Amino acid sequence: MDLAETLSWEGRRIAWGRAGSGPAVVFCHGTPWSSWLWRPFAEALRSDFTVFLWDMPGYGRSSKDRGHPVDFGVQARALAALLAHWGLDRPHVVAHDIGGVVSLRAHLVHEVPYASLFLADVVAIPPAGSPFYRLVQRHPDVLSQVPPHIHEAVVGAYVGDAAHRQLRADDLAALVAPWLGDAGQPAFYRQIAAYDERFLVEVESLLGRIDIPVTLLWGAEDAWIPLATGERLAAAIPGAALTRVEGAGHLIQLDAPVALATALRTWLATRNPAQNA
């Protein structure tokens, strides 16, 4: 499944793809990832669902113009624009990392209706952000100018730290590739510098309004967003439940792909009984 389509939106180019047939399922990636992480899961569901992948502006194969903000507010508006462009009414939404705050903001602030939410190791409530984030926010322009080979090593080490298990070399290369080169290197530091916890505070204050089915899946060994944060998030969402996955870190797609695929299909089948017929 490829991102063969683009949407021109507020001067940006958003790469997206669609496959399959049936109820709509929209995947939202996180940082510093892209839709690549969700691709095999979308492929596995396409026989029963219409699956949608997209790269947020500033990520993956979407445009990375240095003059375009990439904060959570922008990404939520981009998601709302895409759903309108696709003509979707109440899709199922699946989110990882900052895809959580983006999808929640689109739903709670922009009042975009969903059928359900599946949240995996998401950034959604404070606190969040690592010491590396704070370093980049203090010196984004300096770090964007380090020699390319040093930058590649930094990104590789940062990405690898998100997994509980050692990443395969080809997986690590695929995750690092969008952040290399003249466009990718400054974009990497720009999206970190754009992190603003005020968006998380706002979303947290609105969680009690959620009235759709929500489930959370969390890597028990997530060192980026601890399980305790996931449990606090689940407790704040009416009717939500959290399932922990042993042996998985923040990159649950690569640490525990079978557990994630099983949980995702079970969740969607429960929401759409006709798909089991």
Describe the structure.
With 277 residues, the protein is of the alpha/beta class. The chain contains 12 helices and 8 strands. The chain has helices at 39-45, 72-86, 99-108, 131-138, 140-143, 148-160, 169-176, 181-193, 198-206, 227-236, 252-255, 257-271, and strands at residues 5-9, 12-20, 24-28, 50-54, 92-97, 116-122, 214-219, 241-245. The protein has an 8-stranded mixed beta sheet with strand order 1-2-4-3-5-6-7-8, sandwiched between helices. A hairpin with a 2-residue loop joins strand 1 and strand 2 (12-20). Helix 2 packs across helix 3 (99-108), helix 3 crosses helix 9 and helix 6 packs across helix 7 (169-176). The longest helix is centred in the N-terminal third of the chain and has 15 residues, at 72-86. It is globular. The two termini are 26 Å apart. The mean pLDDT is 95.
Q: In angstroms, what is the radius of gyration?
A: 17 Å
> By helix and strand content, what is the structural category?
alpha/beta
Pattern of helices and strands: EEEHEHEHEHHHHHHEHEHH
The biggest sheet amounts to: 8 strands, mixed
What portion of the residues fall into strands of 2 or more residues? 15-25%
Salient structural properties:
single chain; 277 residues; alpha/beta; 42% helix; globular
Quick recap of the structure?
The chain is an alpha/beta fold and about 280 residues long.
SSE layout and pairing:
Layout: E1 5-9, E2 12-20, E3 24-28, H1 39-45, E4 50-54, H2 72-86, E5 92-97, H3 99-108, E6 116-122, H4 131-138, H5 140-143, H6 148-160, H7 169-176, H8 181-193, H9 198-206, E7 214-219, H10 227-236, E8 241-245, H11 252-255, H12 257-271
Parallel strand pairs: 3-4, 3-5, 5-6, 6-7, 7-8
Antiparallel strand pairs: 1-2, 2-4
Helix pairs in contact: 2-3, 3-9, 6-7
